[in-house]
Amino acid sequence: MSSITLAALIAVATAGFAITLQAPINAALGRNLGSTLGAASVSFFVGFSLLLALSFLRGEAGAFMRLAATPRWMLVGGALGAFYVWAALWSIPILGALTTASMLILGQMIAALAIDHFGLIGLPVREISLPRLAAAGLVAAGLVLSRF
User: Fold this and answer.
1) Contact assessment for residue 46 and residue 52, using Cβ atoms and an 8 Å cutoff
2) Sorted alphabetically, which keywords does the UniProt record give (predicted)?
């Protein structure tokens, strides 16, 4: 395994850990504020502020000048992220951390299978194979088991 592959795996595992912590933290914020939408808004504001500051500190603020020439569909990612944050913080008190995380992962795997199969958004086409379907099936089985 190459060092860049290992670094990517570690980064994604760390991000997975972070988003699993993010949902209950945001749910607690929502309870404190009395609003799940308010909590999601505050979460995005804090994240936006941090990313904006880092962009300036790293000398990458010039990237914002290219926004005018960016196709509008590419901005949908922010709306999808906002929906994720709200859905996770709303669901976690109802479903629990394990079931919420399992369902998120299953949803990601189903979408990823379709994205890979059709080569969407400029990604290379990757076949839907039996092992890849089995991986999603095992996550689905884990989701069922998480409810017991």
Assistant:
1) no
2) Membrane, Transmembrane, Transmembrane helix
